[in-house]
Amino acid sequence: MTLQDIQKDIQEGIPSTLPPVKPYDSSVNHAPKRKQILTKEEERLALKNALRYFPSEQHAELLPEFKEELKTYGRIYMYRLRPDYKLHARDIAEYPGQCDQAKAIMLMIHNNLDYAVAQHPHELITYGGNGAVFQNWAQYRLTMKYLSEMTDEQTLVMYSGHPMGLFPSHKDAPRVVVTNGMMIPNYSKPDDWEKYNALGVTQYGQMTAGSFMYIGPQGIVHGTTITVLNAGRKISVNGEGLAGKVFLTAGLGGMSGAQPKAGNIAGCITVCAEINEKATETRHSQGWVDEVISDLDELVTRVNTAKANKEVVSIAYQGNIVDVWEKFDEENVKVDLGSDQTSLHNPWAGGYYPVGFSLEESNQMMAENPEQFKKEVQKTLVRHANAINNHTAKGTYFFDYGNAFLLEASRAGADIMAENGIDFKYPSYVQDIMGPMCFDFGFGPFRWVCASNDPADLLKTDEIACQVLEELQKESPAEIQQQMADNIQWIKGAQENKLVVGSQARILYADAIGRMKIAEAFNKAIEKGEIGPVVLGRDHHDVSGTDSPFRETSNIYDGSQFTADMAIQNVIGDSFRGATWVSIHNGGGVGWGEVINGGFGMLLDGTADADRRLKSMLHWDVNNGIARRNWARNEGAMFAIKRAMEMEPKLKVTIPNLVDENLFN
C-alpha cells in the first residue's frame, strides 16, 4: 500500500464495506485460547456488544463469524478488520490529521502493535500475555479515525480500549484520557477480568500497553541492569564485579526479554528459561540473547565452562525454569543471583506454565480443564520454591522481580514465608534495591521517542542527555553520585548495546531535575531544527505513578502500601499540568486487582507552550511520589523532598516527625 492509501485507510475508520475474511496466520505468536466463562445469555450479550460497532445490515454476515471467534478463542477480536498495511512507528509527518499531538499518539499506538514489539499482535496484545492496546480491531480503527480528525481543542476519551468519542476541551488539556480495567473494587478478581473482557466491556492494559507507551524490552532493560548491578554489589565480598557469576531467571517475553541483555551489560553469565519457542526465537534473532540450549546436560557443561572462563554471555534454556533450578541443584552449579520474571500476575491464562507439560499440552489444559491447569501450576510453584530454597541455603541471593512470584507461591502453599508468617522470606527487588536506591530519591524510568523515527535524531538525543547529566553530576550531592554515574555510563553505552526494537526510543533513569533539564534541552534543539519532535513518557514502574504493595510501593512501611491515592493523584495532576495524554489502569505487572497505575505521554515540539508544560508536569510527576515516600518516613525520600523544596520555593510538603523507638520499650 502507498502512504496515501494508508492515510486514507486510517481516516476511513471502520470501513463501510466489510473487508474479506482474513485467514488465521499460524506464523504469528498468538494469545492462548481464553477459558469459556460466559453463560449462554452472556455469550449473546458479548455478540451484541461486538455487533454495535457495525450497521445493522452487516450483522447477519458478522454474527456467525464473531460467534466462532468467541467459541474458538474465548474472545471476539474481529480479525477480518486487521489493516492490510504494516503497523510500525513511522515519521510523525506521515500520519494524517490536524494536530501533531494526535499524530504522536498514532505513532505510539503503531509502535505498540508492531510485530517486532508486540507479543500477540493479531490479538492487539503488547506484552505480559494479556496487556492489550485494544480489545478488538474495530476499536483500533475507530480510535485512529478520531485521532486523524482531532483538533487541539478536543479530547478523546478511551474506556478500556473503546474510544467513547471526541469531546470539546482546550489546548492545554490532554488530547487523550485513557482508563483501563477500572472496576468497582469487589469485581477485580481474576475471573472478573475473564468475564468482563470476554463481554467486551473492559480490558487489562498492563502498564505501557494500554497507555501507548511501550518501547519494547528496552523499556525495562535499564532498570534490570541497575537491579542486577546492585544485586551484584550486595553479594560482592571484596568489591569484585559479576565476572564469572551466574544469574538464573525465567521469561523471554515482552518485558522479561530484557533480562539477558541486562545481564550482558552488567557483566555476568545469564541463564534465562523460556517455554515458548517463538518468544525465544524472537529474542535470539534480535540479539537480546546470545545462545539457545534445550538440553539440561549441555546447559550444565556450557555454564561451567563460562564460569571457568569468566565469560559474559546470555543463554536461553528452551524449557521450564523449574527443571533448571533442580538440575543445577543436583549438579552443584552455583547460582549467585536468582529471580523470576514469568507473567505470574496472569497465572491461569498463560503467564506461567506447569513443569512436565509441553506448551501445547498446557494451552489445551488451560482452555479445556482450567481447574486441573490451576492445580498443576500450583504444584509447580511449590517445586519451584523448594528448588530455590535449596540454592539459597548454599548462598544464592534470590529476589522477587515484582511479577507476583512470591505472592502466587504463597497462595499455592509453598515454603516462602518468613518466620513471622506475614512477610516473605525473600525481598522484593524494590524493597532491597530500586526503592531505597532509586525511587526514594526520585530516580525512575524516564523515556523518550524520536517522532521523526530517524536513528540520527536518537543519537543526538543521547548526546544531549549525556551532556545534561554530566553537568548535573558536578553539583549533585553525595547521596546520589552512584545513581548519576550509573546513568551516565548507561547512556554512553546505549548505541553500542543496540537497544532499539521498534521506535527510535530511549530509556534513562533520571530524577525530576534530570528529566526537566533533559526535556528542556530537547525542546530547544527541536526549536533550532537540530532534531525533530520528541515524545516524552515513562514506565508506570516509577516513583509516583503506581501503587503496588508487592512491587513499586513494597518499601512503604507506614501501612499505606494498600492505598492507591498516589496513583490517582498522579494522573489527575499530570492531566492539568500539560500532559499530551494520561492513563490510569487497574492491574499491570503484579495482577488484576493488585495494583493501580497511572502514566502519561507528552509531545515536545520546540514551542514555548511545550517548555512551560514540561517544567510544570515533570516536576509534579516525580515529586508527588517523593512526597508520599517521605511521609512514609523513607530516609532517602525525606532527603530528596527537602532538597526539592530548597530548589522550588512554591513547593511546601509536610515532613514527618520521627518517633524514638525506645518509647515503646
Labels describing this entry:
665 residues, alpha/beta, Urocanase fold, Rossmann fold, 3 domains, six-stranded parallel beta sheet, 21 helices, 42% helix, globular
Give structural notes.
The chain has 665 residues and is an alpha/beta fold. The protein folds into three domains: 3-199, Urocanase fold (3-Layer(aba) Sandwich), CATH 3.40.1770; 242-427, Urocanase like domains (Rossmann fold, 3-Layer(aba) Sandwich), CATH 3.40.50; 436-663, Urocanase superfamily (Urocanase fold), CATH 3.40.1770.10. The chain has helices at 3-12, 40-51, 59-73, 100-112, 137-149, 190-198, 218-235, 258-266, 277-285, 296-309, 321-330, 359-368, 370-392, 405-411, 429-437, 455-475, 481-492, 512-527, 565-577, 608-631, 635-647; strands spanning 125-127, 131-132, 154-159, 162-168, 176-180, 246-250, 269-274, 291-293, 313-318, 337-338, 397-398, 444-450, 505-510, 534-538, 546-547, 581-586, 596-604. The strands form three sheets. Strands 3, 4, 5, 12, 13, 14, 15, 16 and 17 form a nine-stranded mixed β-sheet that branches. A hairpin with a 3-residue loop joins strand 1 (125-127) and strand 2. The protein starts with a helix and ends in an 18-residue tail after the last helix. This is Urocanate hydratase.
